[in-house]
Amino acid sequence: MSRVYNFSAGPAALPIGVLERIREDIPDWNGTGMSVMEVSHRSKDFVELAARCEQNLRSLLAVPDNYSVIWTQGGATLQMAMVPLNLAGPDDTVDYVQTGSWGKKALGEARKACNARLVADASDRNFTYIPDEATWDRSDDAKYLHITSNETIAGVEYHELPGGDIPIVSDMSSTILSRPIDISRYGVIYAGAQKNIGPAGITLAIVRKELLEPQRENLPHLMMWKSYAESDSMTNTPPTFAWYVADLVFQHLVEQGGLEAMAAINRRKSEKLYAAIDASDFYSNPVDEKCRSWMNVPFILANPDLDGKFLEESRAAGLANLKGHRSVGGMRASIYNAVPEAAVDALIDFMAEFERSNG
Ligand SMILES: *Cc1c(COP(=O)(O)O)cnc(C)c1O
Fold it and tell me: Residue 102 catalytic?
């Protein structure tokens, strides 16, 4: 077996210990004589898994009791539609800050559902910064403020939350579980699983209970957070395998010392990578230093003609999936929880060597 260091933006690396445990579990999960994919989601074994999974997530993120933990399908993209459908009536106003492509997509979905306003927009500088909050054109009567905590493509992350009294709704797909957060400052948090939680196919929403009641009539069951909250996320057959892996990932994070421990590692990983980029004229990162992401680190080669060679040689050196998003160019290293510090060290060494041979 030969594992590489996987810098994929998503679906992304999973901890090797979790993968080995899955391999062991497959033929006979939990003494059932069946794989987890073959048991009823209503069986005692699976219901226990779901309860433990929620308990561990609640303890990792310190989720207060007045929040529901909800698992859906449809990815973060479905949550972009469920947010305005549940939190706003057709004539209500909602505010969106656009610091990248995902925030732009979320705004597009909200515009179909209600009066969604763009209150701040970083597209003028190719999504490399967060506009100063003092310049935001916020509404007086908005039902909520939507932000994208970490824009995965350009690598722009809020390190401080905006102020105000209305609920903050955040897409945390690519930053959830990277560090402790204060859940009580949010109305709703949502995240697709395939970055820091587990495999694609399951999606997390953490919703303040007072916001569960949909603000419009006749929503289909699967579009209402309330239905999920009332059925322990078993409104219909849930993605049981993905849920099972998420449970293993959370157990793994608890064993690692929880999110304080992850935050220390993640801070170190990102700081050393940015330091290596900044110390060189060969590489650069275009993002405002105040809002550089801990999880997604794009870097541009001064000579883009070398991009192909960089990708080929890095892959040969066991560093996979470093190609940047087409809208940014160059490279992107996604360094989620499951990407070990040794991977970042190996990348930094490779970058220095590549610069020596090609600079
Ligand atoms: C990956 C990602 C998405 C897309 O999630 P899906 O689960 O594919 O719908 C949305 N928002 C952010 C911030 C992401 O990183």
Answer: yes
Ligand 1 centroid – CA 29 distance (Å): 30
Give me the mean pLDDT over the 69-81 stretch. 98
Instruction: Please state which architecture CATH assigns to domain 29-255.
Output: 3-Layer(aba) Sandwich (3.40)
* Distance from C-alpha of 47 to C-alpha of 41, rounded to nearest angstrom: 7
Query: Could you give phi then psi for residue 90, rounded to 5 degrees?
Result: -60, -25
Residue 170 three-state SS: strand
Full 3-state SS string of 62-87: CCCCCEEEEEECCHHHHHHHHHHHHH
Query: For 249-296, what is each residue's pLDDT tens digit?
Result: 999 999 999 999 999 999 999 999 999 999 999 999 999 999 999 999
Chain position carrying tokens 């925030």: 103
Whether domain 5-15+259-358 has CATH 3.30.70.260: the reply is no
Candidate from 72, 77, 80 with most ligand 1 atoms within 8 A of CB, to mutate: 77
Is pTM, for the whole model, over 0.90?
yes
Instruction: Return mean pLDDT, the chain.
Output: 97
Residue 277 CA to ligand 1 center (angstroms) comes to 26
Catalytic site includes residue 243: no
Domain residue extents for the chain = 5-15+259-358, 29-255
Beta-strand ranges (E) seen in 259-306 are: 283-284, 296-301
DSSP string spanning 88-131? --TT-EEEEEESSHHHHHHHHHHHHHSEEEEEEE-GGGTT-S--
How far is 82 from 146, CA to CA, in rounded Å? 13
**pLDDT value of position 359:** 84
